[in-house]
Amino acid sequence: MFWHCLKYELKEVFRVKEFVLWLMLFPIVLGSLFKVAFGSIYSTEIFRSIPVAVVKTSENPVADNLLAAMTDGEDATLAATITDEAKAKELLEGGEAEGIIYIGESVTLTVARKGMVPTVLQEIVSRCNLYESVIRDALATDPASVETVVRKLSAEVSAYREVSTSAENPDVYVQYFYNLIAMVAICGSMTGLHVSTSNQANQSLLGARKNCSAAPKGVYLVAALLGSCIAQSASMILCVTFLRFVLRVNFGGSLLLLYLSAILSGFLGVAMGFFIGSIGKMKHEGKSVIAIAFSMVLCFMSGLMMGNIKGILALKAPWVNRVNPVAIISDSFYCLNMYSDYRRFLTKILGIVIYIALFTVLGVVFTRRRKYASI
Amino acid sequence: MKPTVVKIDNLVKRYGELVALDHFSLEIKEGEIFGLLGPNGSGKTTTINCLLSLLAFDKGEIEVFGKEMKPTSYDTKREIGVIMQNVAVLDELTVRENIDYFCGLYISDKAKRKACVEDAIKFVGLEDFVNFRPAKLSGGLLRRLNIACGIAHKPKLIILDEPTVAVDPQSRNRILEGIQELNREGATVIYTSHYMEEVEQICTRIAIMDKGRKVAEGTKDELKGMIRNTESVSIEILELPEEIREKIAHLPHVYETEYDDTKLTVRCSGGRHNLIRILAVLQEAELGFGRVYSELPTLNDVFLEITGTALRDSKE
């Protein structure tokens, strides 16, 4: 009986035009529009090893060490070509180098344009000069402390590198795609809502009809919930696959965890809708309006419509971002992308799982009734 | 004596101050087509919802097939077919899928279910529409689908709650014939309606409800035997002097006359040749008259005499 109910739940969900439109086609259209809108900015702003030409005019061990640290490894901040001035200018003019770093008594920089990359280079050069002066002062005032100073500065250089390079994709615009995925997930509330209202005798005719059948309520209710979760997972997988492989949005991190996070987020949407549907005696249409309005407010607060709202809330009312399920979903993608270790990501996933459990348990508590005071 | 299928004892259901069912009792025997007749708001659907354990009630007991009816009485529910007042089907499934879905809530065996679904499709005459979705069906066909969904699992007790509301005459006749056929095949039927003609046509026993109470119960002849009226004579007449009306009112067996400027209605209790005697009075007075017709009492007359209001005029 369970599989029978599940089979027809799936048949029904995938034939609902609104489901196909809003949870499968709309994210593809909106994602494509985002890509078109941010495309040009996107292509220039992605962080990568910055190609630079290095011209050495005199010996500067501090600058040499710093440069070595910045160019070491596959995920190096800088891709340096050590050459003479003429060749360096040629590389700069040809666009093969973002700037020329002159290493002499002090370190100087020449760039050909403005933007994020030259700003990063300027920061590197400034730090280089700062470290050099700190070490020179240490040598002049307290030679014994030089070793300690060098060790501290080395640690700082490493940390600087860590921030620059472990952030696999510090593209601010990818945040919109996180929010888009979060929106698709939370729109799963519509399928969850349908599960709740179509199985309660005081909410719909269909609910009344099912309630007087020979099937235990738990069987068709769980089958309907599972069917909705499967359908929602399909829409999440489609959305992520389209963004990642068709639009080539760089989400960074593990692809498997990205899908896992998206699927769990979809479950959260379904559970939220199930919970909303289980409260009170209002009919399906009224609850649909509530669920859509609630979802849109959550999406707005997580920055889907206005990118910086999340930052504003982080300053003014940080608890909002901590409890907003859409923000948690969006943050889980962000953490997966931005941090090498999965501690923060797992914290967000735990938050999602807690919400799923909470909404589902409350929904079941409210819908478990088998007799109604009025229909 | 046939076994009791449904027993409702002293049922009370209140919605706040409103008493929807007021100490309502009923006993339905196997093989009956039992009619619950009453105006809208008389408590028919509430009775059915209590019977199906959908509604909580304040007082009373309900037994179906000799067992107390509870929400978890799944074995009992397996033997009950429900056709609700409003069509309750899944919009995204086809006719065949809908019938299969509801049948599957009662029968797990696939082969058995398939045969039941085919039988139900044939029974309601939806063979040509099996791949249609509900939105493509007319009101009558939709009602037939609703019935097929309710009876596909071949229940022993079938509950039909106003199944012919907003149905064209052709579909209505088909539905009524179908109910009688199901009954002939062995099903006990509970049929609620506010259409007295339907109830009179198919029901073997009838309970008349008003304001949550059972006001009368019996076969249609027993019900009609409860009232004084045995014949109503109606005559279209444009002018009727008061003395002639008085003369008619004093004829043997006449207990009530009514004149509304165009039509004289004379109600008689017993006796024979009442119509001839009335026409003789009019001829003697040389009064012209139009159409004349004589009617035997209907359930509406029963309802009218018992409650003081006509069944058709009653409001929720």
User: Could you report the average pLDDT of chain A, rounded to the nearest whole number?
Assistant: 83
CATH C-level class of the largest domain in chain B:
Alpha Beta
User: CATH superfamily membership of the largest domain in chain B, which one?
Assistant: P-loop containing nucleotide triphosphate hydrolases
Strand order of the largest sheet of chain A: 2-1-3-4
User: What is the helical fraction of chain B, as a range of percent?
Assistant: 25-40%
Poorly predicted sequence stretches spanning 5 or more consecutive residues of chain B: none
CATH architecture of the largest domain in chain B: 3-Layer(aba) Sandwich
Protein structure class of chain A: mainly alpha
Largest sheet of chain A: 4 strands, mixed
Please state the average pLDDT score of chain B.
Answer: 91
Kindly describe this structure.
The complex is a heterodimer of chains A (about 375) and B (about 325). Chain A has about 375 residues and is mostly helical. Chain A folds into 2 domains: about 1-40 and about 170-365, no CATH class; about 50-165, 3-Layer(aba) Sandwich (D-Maltodextrin-Binding Protein, domain 2). Chain A is built from 16 helices and 4 strands. Chain A has helices at about 1-15, 15-45, 60-70, 85-95, 115-140, 145-165, 175-185, 190-195, 205-210, 215-245, 255-280, 285-300, 310-315, 320-325, 325-340, 345-365, and strands at about 50-55, 80, 100-105, 105-110. Chain A has a 4-stranded mixed β-sheet with strand order 2-1-3-4, with helices on both faces. In chain A, a hairpin with a 3-residue loop joins strand 3 and strand 4. With about 325 residues, chain B is α/β, with parallel strands linked by helices. In chain B, helix 3 runs parallel beside helix 5. The chains are: A mainly alpha (about 375), B alpha/beta (about 325). The interface of A and B includes residues 4, 12, 204, 212 and 213 of A.
